[in-house]
Amino acid sequence: MEKIRWGIIGSANIAKGSVIPGIKASETGEVAAIASRGIEKAEETAKQLHIPKAYGSYEELLADPEIEAVYIPLPNHLHKEWTIRAAEAGKHVLCEKPVALNANDAEEMAEACQKAGVVFAEAFMYRYHPRYDLIRDIIQSGEIGEVRGIHATFTFNNAKDTENVRYKKEWGGGSLYDVGVYPISAARMILNQEPQAATVHGLFSEQHDDVDMMASGLLEFENGVALTFDCGMWAAFRNELEIVGTEGRIEVPSAFVAHQNEQDHFIVHTNDGKREVEVPYLNQYALQADALGRSIRNGEELPYPATDAVLNMKVLDACLKSAKERRRIEL
């Protein structure tokens, strides 16, 4: 397979530290260019990461006929504009999560990509790790009985950095946008269902442009099953998921952020004791790039198509509305 030539629109830390190395480690892709708002920063990043081309504007990168796909790690409020502009330029798009500021914007982005005939996906790298296939197989086998609930956490403390883009309300700042989307997407993926209602309580901080710095939520699924979760940017680091069944439970100690060069194990607890399921280290970002690469080159169906991004945003819209209005929101 001829490698997909990727362009990176922006030089965010997630791009430099994770996604660019992931694309380079993939079987299907190579990073051919990077663009920033100024040529100096673009050239500096290109030199640092051994990227052949650097552009001083996003428009220049999109005009490059050699670039086939773009990764967009820009602040959340810019996702819609540059996804649509990339699609109109004929580029396939991997857009950082959350894919948009609301479900309507996400739908417009998906429609623009469909009209242009380009592949479009939201960058939830953890979903491409094979341990989640193993977890779903264990649930299907009946080893932990019927699923009764899921609990997930994703918190970290970056509150001192008050100038961070995560703390700009108009830019899509807040913990639900930044890390709450992980437990939400995980529950939808594991249960293969859409929730029926959301109730969320949030901590909104005047020091941080009144974005939610912490949120605790309940998503109601069918048959009385629920996701309980909390997410935050002003709390100790946690990154865990637990699936509780009638006969046992599955504990995922590092649910979303994989440990570099370690086995991303999970633990199955039943009445017979507990067993650790070891999964060899795999680069989640490389696996994500390969899924898009096979879709672009071979027409393979994406495991998480654009429609999934729209559905996830609908849930996030309900969570944000619930937190702001302090009431239960039906979907």
UniProtKB/TrEMBL annotation:
PANTHER family: OXIDOREDUCTASES (PTHR22604), TRANS-1,2-DIHYDROBENZENE-1,2-DIOL DEHYDROGENASE (PTHR22604:SF105). Gene3D superfamilies: Dihydrodipicolinate Reductase, domain 2 (3.30.360.10), NAD(P)-binding Rossmann-like Domain (3.40.50.720). Keywords: Oxidoreductase. The lineage of its organism: Bacteria, Bacillati, Bacillota, Bacilli, Bacillales. Transmembrane segments: none annotated. Belongs to the Gfo/Idh/MocA family. It comes from the Bacteria. This is Gfo/Idh/MocA family oxidoreductase. Residues 4-122 form the Gfo/Idh/MocA-like oxidoreductase N-terminal domain.
